[in-house]
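not sure who needs this but someone in the group chat was asking about DDIAS protein from Donacobius atricapilla so here u go. i didnt clean anything up, its just raw.
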Amino acid sequence: MNRVQGLLAASVISIQNSCFIYPACQNCFSRLILDSRRFHCLKCGCTGEAKDASYRYRLSLKIADTNDLLDITVFGSCLDPFFGVTAKNLLRYIQDFDQLSGEANTDSSSRALVHAVETCFIGKRFIFGV
């Protein structure tokens, strides 16, 4: 599943979604269903307390090489160096910031994160393992 078949040098044209962090099953990496106290994985049946849920990065990009436009999704800890922290820690920083700022509306921190990601990725060239 994680085997690289080849390398592709391409430029990022756009970010396809604004949700970069998702609650992930520790067993199969599928998206978890969270409620206020528990989590549940629909794929493998894993359950636990919501406070113990793991989080992963998921960055959907539109990229272009010299010949094609492609949609790709980059998952997991390979994005840690770009964000500077793990997905779980970034989520914690955002929640702490929202709480300290007293903002009832978390749109401002979400917009700031989206803008930062766009600034760091759009127009830049990367080598992708595909």
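also The chain is about 25% helix and 35% strand. if thats useful
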